[in-house]
């Protein structure tokens, strides 16, 4: 374990860009220097994030904990596991690339750098925090720099697009907040077993118990420390009132092993159902899922290249990440009940996004709509393990493992390809001053390398095997077939549409005759600069590596998902207040019985 | 057997090295580099061929009825219940296919060096089919790119042939599609070529939806995709068990089989998805010889052969019917086509129809055997087409004629190909060119099938008519090109092809003659080798859902009397076709046979119009979603909704001015409000 980096790295990762942003704000440095400093800081963060690869995440999340406001049950709880690791790495890697891609920005460079750093803090914070309050704060933190980045450096209609982005995502985050608060309002830590509390990091970040007795001993040691949270716990237990918590790990334990969220709320549905619906709606806006996606094309068309890369590469993953991290673990039964809705929305998004992309003549709008289409696979994958019946519990948990792992992989794959594609579009825009596909053509002759790399990324986005998009599409489809054959068939049919718009874009932009030498267009079509190769080549390379050898990444993701799926597999609700038959899966105790009645 | 692994690796090295060299030399790729690239690629192809021949020899020595050799290269994906590896499966089918693929590929690699002389010209290439401004387009040569794509194709094709599970098959299936896309679009400045490339990939993607769903369904039903695993289990035996047990999964198996067949419809250009193949002739002719006649388009037949135990009699009857329909359509269109390569393209479609028909009739050996012989004579014919086009710069039959005097060697070699595809031979003695043996086997199969299924008469009539039409269009093609008088200046001044072009043609011609022969004294032949490795059941199988569908056993066509009848039927049909050619020639209607106008209108106007209409309607559907719904309905209603909210709020309408401070205030208020609501609701 000597090679394991210390977990104080986690708060460092989150705060470093913010500290850098503050320093940059105060320090009197020129535009060029601030750009260089920011790049250096982002590279440092990326290097630090890369050391996280040394953390063994297979046994469970590795935590870092600081008491923050124990009286309302919130702590600064950060953690890294197989679910957050790939997305943290993606964020840390894309940020410097996005900055490199922002060479064209030459006004208010310092402010731009400050905002980019703040954005990075927010994104890393969301992926690393395991406490709902912290999660929400970071989530909102992203909103503000993004608003300014679009609104100040965007295209002609930037004000309207920024406002639209802001309003949509604000509504989304409020819905999400409401969902989280419902869960908080019904939570109670005291009935949880010592083992569960230990696993949730309540006794401290390093207190992972291997046995029940050990956990009990830990609990006693913890209570004896007299820390504020321990005192609260002691008092709540003694007085018999509930101890609320924002700890996402603890909430997941509550959601899967107790019936605290199963109390009826209103409309005939219980708290878990409402929490799930609100969380789902909030995150679906961010994802984005049809019909809540219309902010995305607008924002992308106006945003500058580097910002678009982060918007598509990282911001869209927040929604998917939130669903895997919060919505499913907290409300497994509601998720199972509404799986048809999630799968349906996913399939519709896939088809809708592809059709809409087909209609675009604006190169960037086309790529933006393709994002809508590709993120649909995330929903489809998550909906794979749906019906939590006792007779097929283990099998369905396996399905969810496969589907959700595929969904996370798809998020990473899409992060790589969409960032690369937006950059490729940016390259074209910078040279020609427009993105109209009908007026482009023949780029492959004057810029062979740039076109070649862009075509690799386009093929990855199309789902050509051997590139990353294929794996991210195949796994959700395989997993979801049993539960939602129609949705899978629709998604599979949409691959034709994907091919249609991708090939159309390639044919119009890169193929065809290049301009004759005396045409002014020929002068503009310069080959890639070194910086541009530095941005595009790693992304294309990543697309190939992830496509040929997806297993190392999948091996990282799977244990985290499997641990969750296992919790989803046997939620032992015993409440009699359920109004929905499917809401209450039978307990482990009942399972053999149920199996027999269905078979004989 | 490391051999199987080394062969595609060698090709892959070629495909990987080439772009690096190209990209290192930014700006302009020198001719020396391009030539070096071509040599490396050719060397790799030769190496693959050598290894494939070693593997074939080892396989024959080992005894081809032995169980296949299977194994994994590396693990691709293992998540939860899913476990996929990059695995291989060596059996008679894959070993023989590897040999055929590498053989034709090597011939084409050598041939292309002689064919692409203009790509190596130091002053660049003048493409007279594209106008740049008012002048013909001038561009740099890109021989290196051709060999790069060609190597990628060879790597993918070998991967497809050797793959040991359905997922890997799908991976390489798509990759051959991709390399085919790149190769068809080699002359991407030409609009027709760029469009043809897109169309080929799109049609194939459409068909692959079926393949993908079939694969997903099979995985969900059996839990694995490995064809044959080390213990003799695997997908094929699991599927066979499902088929034999009947039951609830039988219907699913039928659907999965149809899904897989749907993938084959695209790749093997079967009805109704054949239209991409004639367009694919926009690619360079060596590509047409390798990709679009001998290897890639045969992949559909190969896949059917690979998953044969999974196919129920119902599915096989559908396969046979589609094959019969396709062979007729292809043959009719070939009779009317006015371009050398287009005739060959339709002829390929027709012959692929023969293969599918044979597979569907239960003739696994007949179908695969015809695939092999067809690979030889059809690539020979395409290389001959390339030689003619190289000499005259035109493939238009109206511009050719009389080339026999100027290009006697090409004319003779083409003649061999023509006779082979007609299936020339003497039925009584059992001696003929390669096509004779494979076509006879198909006719035997058809007669055997007809005896078991009296309702299926048309599945015997179709190949008979097809054989007559084959003789007609091939005779017409040869006569219009080589006989008579030159009909253009270019044809009159044509010169004989260079030795680099003739040598590969000679090799293929030798094989087109002899591929069907039995080795004297050894009693070993290709057909016997395939027969020993055939997965087709020996007893007849009857459909569960449709008991009328009876697939005869693998050796039922050896029943007395069938062989002679089949031979006479094929010979009679061919003779009729040749007679038709003679009559047409005497009447001077060879270039423009009866009904050609209607057929050509269908081919060149009606079908493309349908394609365009389809594409336009899909696109307008997208426009509707993006504009009418996204922009107008959703956006406007949400904007209206939010405006309403703001107005309802206390003096919050100023927010619309875009002041962020107000949003933050609103945000904080919202948080406090919702938070207190939620907490109050509970406490």
UniProtKB/TrEMBL annotation, chain A:
<protein>
    <submittedName>
        <fullName>NADH-quinone oxidoreductase subunit M</fullName>
        <ecNumber>1.6.5.11</ecNumber>
    </submittedName>
</protein>
<feature type="transmembrane region" description="Helical">
    <location>
        <begin position="6"/>
        <end position="25"/>
    </location>
</feature>
<feature type="transmembrane region" description="Helical">
    <location>
        <begin position="408"/>
        <end position="429"/>
    </location>
</feature>
<feature type="transmembrane region" description="Helical">
    <location>
        <begin position="366"/>
        <end position="388"/>
    </location>
</feature>
<keyword id="KW-1278">Translocase</keyword>
<feature type="transmembrane region" description="Helical">
    <location>
        <begin position="134"/>
        <end position="153"/>
    </location>
</feature>
<dbReference type="Pfam" id="PF00361">
    <property type="entry name" value="Proton_antipo_M"/>
</dbReference>
<keyword id="KW-0472">Membrane</keyword>
<dbReference type="Pfam" id="PF01059">
    <property type="entry name" value="Oxidored_q5_N"/>
</dbReference>
<feature type="region of interest" description="Disordered">
    <location>
        <begin position="579"/>
        <end position="600"/>
    </location>
</feature>
<feature type="domain" description="NADH:ubiquinone oxidoreductase chain 4 N-terminal">
    <location>
        <begin position="74"/>
        <end position="121"/>
    </location>
</feature>
<dbReference type="GO" id="GO:0042773">
    <property type="term" value="P:ATP synthesis coupled electron transport"/>
</dbReference>
<feature type="transmembrane region" description="Helical">
    <location>
        <begin position="449"/>
        <end position="472"/>
    </location>
</feature>
<feature type="transmembrane region" description="Helical">
    <location>
        <begin position="165"/>
        <end position="184"/>
    </location>
</feature>
<dbReference type="InterPro" id="IPR000260">
    <property type="entry name" value="NADH4_N"/>
</dbReference>
<dbReference type="GO" id="GO:0012505">
    <property type="term" value="C:endomembrane system"/>
</dbReference>
<feature type="transmembrane region" description="Helical">
    <location>
        <begin position="271"/>
        <end position="295"/>
    </location>
</feature>
<dbReference type="InterPro" id="IPR003918">
    <property type="entry name" value="NADH_UbQ_OxRdtase"/>
</dbReference>
<feature type="transmembrane region" description="Helical">
    <location>
        <begin position="112"/>
        <end position="128"/>
    </location>
</feature>
<feature type="transmembrane region" description="Helical">
    <location>
        <begin position="340"/>
        <end position="359"/>
    </location>
</feature>
<keyword id="KW-0520">NAD</keyword>
<feature type="transmembrane region" description="Helical">
    <location>
        <begin position="484"/>
        <end position="503"/>
    </location>
</feature>
UniProtKB/TrEMBL annotation, chain B:
<feature type="domain" description="NADH-Ubiquinone oxidoreductase (complex I) chain 5 N-terminal">
    <location>
        <begin position="77"/>
        <end position="119"/>
    </location>
</feature>
<dbReference type="InterPro" id="IPR003945">
    <property type="entry name" value="NU5C-like"/>
</dbReference>
<feature type="transmembrane region" description="Helical">
    <location>
        <begin position="564"/>
        <end position="583"/>
    </location>
</feature>
<dbReference type="InterPro" id="IPR001750">
    <property type="entry name" value="ND/Mrp_TM"/>
</dbReference>
<dbReference type="Pfam" id="PF00662">
    <property type="entry name" value="Proton_antipo_N"/>
</dbReference>
<feature type="transmembrane region" description="Helical">
    <location>
        <begin position="663"/>
        <end position="682"/>
    </location>
</feature>
<keyword id="KW-1133">Transmembrane helix</keyword>
<dbReference type="GO" id="GO:0003954">
    <property type="term" value="F:NADH dehydrogenase activity"/>
</dbReference>
<keyword id="KW-0472">Membrane</keyword>
<keyword id="KW-0560">Oxidoreductase</keyword>
<dbReference type="InterPro" id="IPR018393">
    <property type="entry name" value="NADHpl_OxRdtase_5_subgr"/>
</dbReference>
<feature type="transmembrane region" description="Helical">
    <location>
        <begin position="40"/>
        <end position="61"/>
    </location>
</feature>
<dbReference type="InterPro" id="IPR001516">
    <property type="entry name" value="Proton_antipo_N"/>
</dbReference>
<feature type="transmembrane region" description="Helical">
    <location>
        <begin position="315"/>
        <end position="340"/>
    </location>
</feature>
<dbReference type="Pfam" id="PF00361">
    <property type="entry name" value="Proton_antipo_M"/>
</dbReference>
<feature type="transmembrane region" description="Helical">
    <location>
        <begin position="146"/>
        <end position="164"/>
    </location>
</feature>
<feature type="transmembrane region" description="Helical">
    <location>
        <begin position="410"/>
        <end position="437"/>
    </location>
</feature>
<feature type="transmembrane region" description="Helical">
    <location>
        <begin position="209"/>
        <end position="228"/>
    </location>
</feature>
<dbReference type="GO" id="GO:0008137">
    <property type="term" value="F:NADH dehydrogenase (ubiquinone) activity"/>
</dbReference>
<feature type="transmembrane region" description="Helical">
    <location>
        <begin position="500"/>
        <end position="519"/>
    </location>
</feature>
<dbReference type="GO" id="GO:0016020">
    <property type="term" value="C:membrane"/>
</dbReference>
<feature type="transmembrane region" description="Helical">
    <location>
        <begin position="287"/>
        <end position="309"/>
    </location>
</feature>
């Amino acid at each position: 374990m000597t090679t394991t980096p210390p977990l104080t790295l986690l708060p460092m990762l989150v705060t470093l860009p913010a500290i850098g942003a503050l320093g940059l704000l105060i320090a009197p440095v020129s535009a060029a220097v601030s750009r260089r400093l920011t790049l250096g800081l982002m590279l440092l963060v990326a290097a630090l994030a890369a050391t996280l690869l040394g953390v063994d995440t297979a046994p469970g999340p590795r935590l870092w904990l600081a008491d923050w406001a124990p009286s309302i049950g919130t702590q600064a709880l950060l953690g890294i596991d197989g679910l957050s690791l790939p997305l943290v790495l993606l964020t840390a890697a894309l940020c410097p690339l996005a900055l490199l891609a922002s060479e064209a920005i030459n006004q208010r460079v310092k402010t731009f750098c400050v905002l980019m750093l703040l954005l990075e803090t927010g994104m890393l914070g969301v992926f690393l925090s395991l406490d709902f309050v912290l999660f929400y704060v970071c989530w909102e933190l992203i909103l503000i720099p993004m608003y300014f980045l679009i609104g100040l450096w965007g295209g002609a209609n930037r004000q309207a697009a920024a406002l639209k982005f802001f309003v949509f995502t604000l509504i989304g985050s409020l819905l999400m907040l409401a969902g989280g608060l419902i869960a908080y309002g019904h939570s109670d830590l005291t009935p949880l077993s010592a083992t569960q509390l230990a696993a949730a990091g309540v006794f401290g970040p390093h207190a992972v118990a291997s046995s029940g007795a050990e956990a009990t001993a830990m609990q006693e040691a913890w209570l004896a420390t007299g820390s504020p949270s321990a005192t609260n716990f002691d008092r709540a237990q003694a007085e018999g009132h509930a101890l609320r918590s924002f700890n996402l790990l603890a909430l997941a334990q509550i959601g899967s092993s107790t019936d605290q969220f199963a109390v009826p709320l209103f409309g005939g549905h219980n708290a878990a159902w409402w929490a799930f619906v609100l969380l789902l709606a909030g995150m679906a806006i961010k994802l984005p899922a049809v019909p809540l996606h219309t902010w995305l094309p607008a924002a992308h068309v106006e945003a500058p290249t580097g910002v678009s890369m982060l918007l598509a590469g990282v911001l869209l993953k927040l929604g998917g990440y939130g669903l895997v991290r919060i919505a499913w673990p907290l409300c497994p039964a509601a998720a199972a009940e509404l799986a048809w809705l999630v799968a349906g929305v996913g399939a519709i998004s896939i088809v809708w996004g592809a059709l809409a992309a087909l209609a675009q003549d604006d190169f960037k709008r086309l790529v933006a709509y393709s994002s809508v289409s590709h993120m649909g696979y995330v929903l489809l994958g998550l909906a794979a393990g749906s019906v939590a019946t006792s007779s097929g519990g283990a099998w369905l948990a396996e399905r969810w493992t496969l589907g959700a792992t595929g969904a996370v992989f798809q998020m990473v794959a899409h992060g790589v390809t969409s960032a690369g594609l937006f950059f490729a579009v940016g390259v074209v825009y910078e040279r020609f001053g427009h993105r109209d596909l009908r007026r482009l053509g023949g780029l492959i002759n004057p810029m062979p390398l740039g076109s070649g790399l862009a075509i690799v990324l386009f093929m990855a986005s199309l789902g050509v095997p051997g590139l990353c998009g294929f794996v991210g599409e195949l796994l959700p489809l395989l997993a979801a077939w049993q539960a939602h054959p129609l949705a899978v068939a629709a998604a599979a049919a949409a691959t034709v549409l994907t091919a249609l718009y991708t090939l159309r874009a390639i044919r119009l932009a890169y193929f065809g005759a290049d301009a004759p030498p005396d045409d002014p267009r020929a002068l503009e079509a310069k080959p890639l600069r070194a910086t541009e190769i530095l941005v595009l080549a790693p992304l294309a390379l990543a697309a190939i590596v992830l496509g040929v050898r997806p297993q190392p990444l999948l091996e990282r993701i799977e244990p985290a998902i499997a641990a969750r799926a296992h919790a989803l597999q046997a939620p032992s609700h015993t409440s009699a207040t359920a109004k929905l038959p499917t809401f209450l899966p039978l307990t482990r105790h009942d399972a053999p019985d149920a199996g027999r009645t269905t078979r004989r | 057997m490391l051999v199987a692994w080394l062969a595609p690796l060698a090709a892959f090295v070629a495909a990987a090295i080439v772009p690096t060299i190209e990209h290192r030399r930014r700006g302009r790729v020198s001719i020396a580099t391009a030539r070096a690239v071509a040599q490396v690629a050719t060397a790799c192809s030769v190496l693959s061929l050598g290894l494939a021949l070693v593997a074939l020899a080892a396989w024959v020595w080992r005894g081809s009825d032995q169980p296949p050799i299977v194994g994994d290269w590396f693990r691709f994906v293992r998540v939860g219940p899913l476990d996929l590896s990059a695995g291989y499966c060596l059996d008679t089918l894959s070993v023989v296919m590897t040999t055929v693929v590498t053989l034709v590929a090597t011939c084409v690699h050598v041939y292309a060096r002689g064919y692409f002389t203009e790509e190596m010209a130091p002053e660049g290439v003048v493409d007279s089919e594209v106008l740049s401004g008012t002048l013909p387009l001038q561009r740099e040569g890109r021989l290196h790119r051709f060999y790069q794509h060609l190597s990628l194709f060879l790597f993918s094709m070998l991967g497809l042939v050797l793959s040991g599970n359905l997922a890997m098959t799908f991976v390489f299936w798509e990759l051959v599609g991709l390399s085919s896309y790149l190769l068809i679009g080699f002359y991407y400045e030409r609009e027709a070529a760029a469009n043809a490339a897109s169309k080929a990939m799109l049609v194939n993607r459409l068909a692959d939806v079926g393949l993908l769903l079939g694969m997903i369904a099979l995985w969900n039903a059996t839990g694995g995709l490995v064809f044959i695993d080390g213990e003799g289990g695997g997908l094929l035996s699991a599927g066979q068990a499902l088929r034999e047990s009947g039951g609830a999964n039988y219907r699913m198996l039928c659907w999965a089989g149809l899904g897989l067949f749907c993938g084959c419809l695209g790749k093997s250009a079967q009805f109704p998805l054949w239209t991409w193949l004639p367009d694919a002739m926009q690619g360079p002719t060596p590509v047409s010889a390798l990709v679009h006649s001998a290897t890639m388009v045969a992949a559909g037949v190969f896949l059917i052969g690979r998953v044969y135990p999974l196919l129920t009699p119902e599915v096989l009857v559908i396969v046979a019917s589609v094959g019969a329909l396709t062979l007729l359509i292809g043959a009719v269109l070939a009779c009317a086509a006015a371009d050398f390569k287009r005739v060959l393209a339709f002829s390929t479609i027709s012959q692929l129809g023969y293969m599918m028909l044979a597979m569907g009739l239960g003739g696994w050996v007949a179908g695969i055997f015809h695939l092999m012989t067809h690979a030889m004579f059809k690539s020979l014919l395409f290389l001959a087409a390339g030689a003619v086009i190289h000499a005259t710069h035109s493939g238009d039959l109206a511009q050719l004629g009389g080339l026999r005097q100027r290009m006697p060697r090409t004319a003779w070699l083409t003649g061999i190909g023509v006779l082979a595809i007609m299936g020339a031979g003497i039925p009584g003695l059992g001696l003929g060119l390669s096509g004779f043996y494979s076509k006879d086997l198909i006719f035997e199969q058809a007669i055997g099938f007809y005896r078991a299924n009296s309702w299926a008469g048309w599945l015997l009539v179709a190949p008979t008519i097809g054989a007559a039409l084959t003789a007609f269009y091939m005779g017409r093609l040869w006569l219009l090109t080589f006989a008579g008088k030159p009909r253009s200046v270019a044809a009159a001044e044509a010169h004989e092809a260079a030795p680099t072009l003739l040598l590969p043609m000679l090799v293929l011609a030798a094989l087109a003659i002899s591929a069907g022969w039995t080795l004297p004294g050894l009693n070993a032949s290709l057909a016997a080798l395939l027969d020993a490795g055939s997965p087709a059941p020996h007893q007849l199988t009857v459909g569960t859902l449709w008991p009328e569908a009876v697939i005869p056993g693998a050796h039922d066509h050896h029943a007395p009397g069938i062989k002679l009848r089949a031979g006479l039927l094929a010979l009679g049909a061919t003779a009729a076709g040749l007679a038709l050619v003679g009559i047409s020639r005497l009447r001077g209607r060879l270039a423009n046979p009866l009904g050609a106008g209607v057929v050509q209108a269908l081919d060149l106007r009606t079908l493309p119009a349908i394609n365009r209409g389809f594409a336009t309607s899909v696109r307008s559907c997208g426009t509707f979603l993006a504009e009418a719904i996204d922009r107008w309905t959703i956006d406007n209603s949400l904007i209206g909704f939010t405006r309403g909210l703001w107005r309802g709020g206390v003096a919050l309408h100023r927010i619309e001015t875009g002041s962020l401070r107000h949003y933050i205030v609103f945000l904080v208020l919202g948080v406090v409000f919702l938070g207190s609501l939620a907490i109050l609701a509970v406490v």
